[in-house]
Structure formats: C-alpha cells, structure tokens
Amino acid sequence: MPYRPAPGTPATGPAVAFVFEGGGQPQSVLELDLRRIRDAIALDTLSVLATLLGEGALDRVVLITDRSELAAAVPPGVEVEDSAAEYPFHFGHSLARLINRYGAALALVMGGAAAPLYAVEDVRRFLVLARSHPGASVQNNPQSPDVLAFSPAAVALSVELPDSDNALGHALVSAGLRRVLVENSARVNFDVDTPADAALLAGEAGAGVRTRALLDSGGMPWVDRLRQRLAAVETVLAADGAELALFGRVGSPVTGYLNMHLRCRLRVFSEERGMRALGRVSAGAVVSFVGRLCDALGPEAFFTHLQGCADACVFDTRVLMAHWRQPLSDCDRFHADVGAADEVGDARLRAFTAAAWSSPVPVVTGGHTLVYGGLWLLADRILRRLQPAAG
C-alpha cells in the first residue's frame, strides 16, 4: 500500500517534474501542424527544466509520451516514459504510478504545451512556493490549472485522480492540499491548445528557440491568416472607446487587467468557467446563453446583430460546442478556428464558421486560452508599444 502522509507534512525526497505530451493521430495537415508546434514547445520546456535539473532545483525530469520522435529529441538528463504501453491511457492512473515509481516527494506536473513562455525563473517560482508551503498545491489557475507543483506528492495517492489533467487541481484539494495560486501574468496563463493560441505565440519573443524557428518558417499559411485577424482585434483593444465583445470562459483577472490598463470598452458574457474540471462537459450539463441566442437567430443574423454592439469579437467557441452536445473532432474544431469552412464536416459548425469569417466585424475563435492568457498577451503588446511614448 502506498505511503500516504498527512497534508502539511514537510516533503523529504526527490523533486520530480512530470511532463505529459501525446495522444491522438492527426487526421489533417492542420492537426499535424499543431502537433509539430506542441512538440517544439515541449522540447523548449524540457530544456528549461533541464537547466533546473543542472542547478539541483529538480532531481529528475520525466517526459511521458507515446511519440517516438519527441522522445528521441529530449535534452540530456531528461528521462522518458512510454505511454503507448498504457492502453487505454488514463492520466490519473499514470501520474499515481509515476509518483510511486520515482518516489517523488515534490511533484511538478504540466502538459507539454502548457508553458510556452515560461523562463527558468517562472518554473523556479512554482518549486519555491511548493517547498515553502508543504501541504499545498501551487497552481497557475484556480479552475483548470495547466501547471501544478505540490508536496508531499504522495498525498495525491489518497484519492482517485482524474482521467485528464483539467480536474487535477480539484482532486488535490479533495486530497487535503490547500490551493496556492502563483501571481497572475500573461506568461503564467498562456498555453497552446488551438490554432489561435499558436498564432498568438508566433508574435512573442519569449517563445523558445525551437518554437520560434518553427512558427517563423513560413510553412503554415494559416498562422499568417490568424495573425491578421488577431491584429484587427489588437487594434480595437488599443483604441479609446472602441468596443470588444468577449464570449466564453472569460476570467475576471484578465478583464480587470484590460480595464486597468486600456480604454477599450468591453462587452463580456462569461459562462461555464471550469466546465471540464467540474465534469459538466462529460455529464452533458453545459448550457450556454450565447449558444441559445446563436441557435435561435442563426449564425449569420447573430453576427449581423453583433455589429451593432462591438467592433470586434473574441469567442471561446468550446463552450458553444459543448452546449451543442454533439461530439466534434479536433479536425473540425481546428479548421473552424482558421476559417476553413469547407473542411469542416459538421454542418452546424460549418455554417457557424462561414458566418464568423464573413462577419461585418473581425471575429477570432478558439478555446479558454484565447479569452484569458491570449487577451493578456495582446494587452501587454499594446502596453509595450505605449511605453516609449509614456517616457
């Protein structure tokens, strides 16, 4: 039976970083592009962790993947666990097994593309907080964290861990660990799940060497297409008195940041935050007011009415998709995000995509990151431009 210390017990033993990346077979060139980008981010992140390994801040760094090409390219010192041997793969069971196998006293857990802008000091902050707060789960997000550090790690074995990382933060709290949040910033809250996230990352100097080289290679035309749309949103965000509509899992930290630093007016309808971590998606319980309105009006009329309220729109469409309660492939989701309506197999999503991309105002669609860390990045770009003028 695994050792299960009481929460609050100081951790003694190795600090181990577990990085999960893998799963799924690309069904289109677009999906393959996203996989290549995620792999590049994972390798850049592993290089950051390898630096901490060399400093002694971490004792071991482990990549869990089913991708042989990614496994073969890891930096020196990084260990690899083949998740292909685990079928069907279950995130929580895998993590529990690894905590036991490596004897982790402190565990740092993240997805491969969860920290594309983290520098060494960002990761070190998680480790310092976890060591100084025994019995705590240090997280970058209270609802569905992408990066967590916690000790004693064996406390996680006292509960059934979830089948995906979205709910890990809640599971650790259920195990008795108190939640500690790192300071909010664009870097801390930004990860890459969708094409819109990747296009946002293409404009960031803080991305890793491999990631920048891939995004700057010019081999992905959809990146430039999305960057043009994002530039239109950025123009609205920077303009005094312009109006930006935000739909989906919009968090108060980002709207507070925008209101504090910019003079654009926001029209916000925030709904279904934590829908995955709370099990609402799997239970078919997601209800979207915006989705009902879109369904009632039809997508073309919906975006026509939007023109009278806003100059641009940023839309977390994963809430809308969950509201429809119809399984959609990553192939359809991603092609919808880049405006390739003809490549979308689902008729309802195809009609929505065509309407969004012919909308009288620029619309960018994606997931949670787009309306959280993504907006934060856009705001920071505007503020960097304004700094010389302010000086």
Summarize the entry for a quick read.
The protein has 391 residues and is an alpha/beta fold.
Describe this entry's structure for a reader:
Helix 1 (29-55) links the parallel strand 1 (15-20) and strand 2. The protein has 2 domains: 15-183, Spore Coat Polysaccharide Biosynthesis Protein SpsA, Chain A; 222-383, no CATH class. Helix 1 packs antiparallel against helix 8 (209-215). A 7-stranded mixed beta sheet has the order 3-2-1-4-6-5-7, with helices on both faces. The protein has a 4-stranded parallel beta sheet with strand order 9-8-10-11. The chain contains 16 helices and 11 strands. Helix content is 44%, strand content 15%.
Topology summary:
Blueprint: E1 15-20, H1 29-55, E2 60-65, H2 68-72, E3 78-82, H3 91-102, E4 106-111, H4 120-132, E5 136-139, E6 147-151, H5 168-174, E7 178-181, H6 186-189, H7 195-201, H8 209-215, H9 221-238, E8 243-248, H10 252-261, E9 265-270, H11 289-297, H12 299-307, E10 312-316, H13 317-324, H14 330-337, H15 347-357, E11 363-366, H16 373-390
Parallel strand pairs: 1-2, 1-4, 2-3, 5-7, 8-9, 8-10, 10-11
Antiparallel strand pairs: 4-6, 5-6
* Rg over CA atoms: 21 Å
Strand order of the largest sheet: 3-2-1-4-6-5-7
CATH topology type of the largest domain: Spore Coat Polysaccharide Biosynthesis Protein SpsA, Chain A
Q: Into which percentage range does the β-strand content fall?
A: 5-15%
Q: What structural category do the secondary elements indicate?
A: alpha/beta
Oligomer state of the chains in this structure: single chain
